[in-house]
Specification:
globular; seven-stranded mixed sheet; 15 strands; nucleotide-binding; eight-stranded mixed sheet; 2 domains; EC 1.4.1.1; alpha/beta; nucleotide binding; Rossmann fold; Ala_DH; 14 helices
Length: 369
Amino acid sequence: MQIGIPKEIKAQEDRVGLTPDNVRTLVNNGHTVLIEENAGIGSGFTDEEYVSAGAKIESDPAKIWASQMVIKVKEPLASEYDYFHEDLILFAYFHLAPENELTEALLANKVTAIAYETMVENGALPLLTPMSEVAGRMAIQVGTHYLEKQNGGSGTLISGVPGVAPGHVVVIGGGTVGYNAAKIAVGMGARVTILDVNTGRLGELEDLLNDKVTTLMSNEENIRQVIKDADIVVGSVLVTGRRAPVLVSEDMVKTMKPGSVLVDIAVDQGGNFETTHPTTHQDPIYVKHDVIHYTVANIPGAVPRTSTLALTNATMKYASQIINQGVEAAAKRNETILTGINTYQGYLTHEGVAESQNRTHTPIQDLLK
């Protein structure tokens, strides 16, 4: 099979779909890999390293996209839709729930879109987890940065000092993102509150974090009360394939302290805050109701070396199965790959995406019989 690795074109997105080591594995298995010129440079991988691994460097993105399978990181942008072609297997993050135009382009061109974020294995999301870990940890890093006065914040040191109370970090959602955000915040000495709808998970988090957090049932009233005192609020609630739930209304945001920071990790799926709209690393924040909003849609792209290595450590297992066996055979043998198929031969196959877009869906199992 020929595999194409395009250069990411999203603003300041420097991750890349495969590392040179990944390429070497595929080439040794008899496949051809085309790497767009300088696709890996932002993650610290040179064209020369890819060539040494057996890849071919190509400057024309159209030739990259003409491959049987394209592996990338972020969802294709509108300027890339013209590259779509029938029988293309596209393996990437898509977050299709709020992306009607992208969904339509995939369907019209009969692209098989396999989404990292909807692949489920034993109840977990193996290809979302590594980037969720990065995003959760980054949430506190960027939150504390924007709390600094020169960056528009309240001037609060999240750790406090002897005689001065620490700042308050509120994390909405106790999944992978929430846990990692809380872990970093606790490590920095902050006062941390985590909200989740699962009391069992809240108990686990108390144990994991050595009872250094306060846990609350996530409901409208508890969220309303706790964010009034918060210095940083992290939104981290996702529903696989669907639009993220709006858990913090604009009226709630109005009650937050001036100069506090809101970090919406769920922005890819529409966001947990009513006041959210996507930003980029070039222009990452905006202020609304005196609250700094950090709503970058590809937070892990800020640390592309770490993120690329973490992501490809997880994706390569499934990519190899798809490449070596073909998508249909691989999906039949591995249910995790099956759960990742969002579009197939002109059909929308993911129920969550369909519900979010008010479309009908065809179960992928019906199409692979």
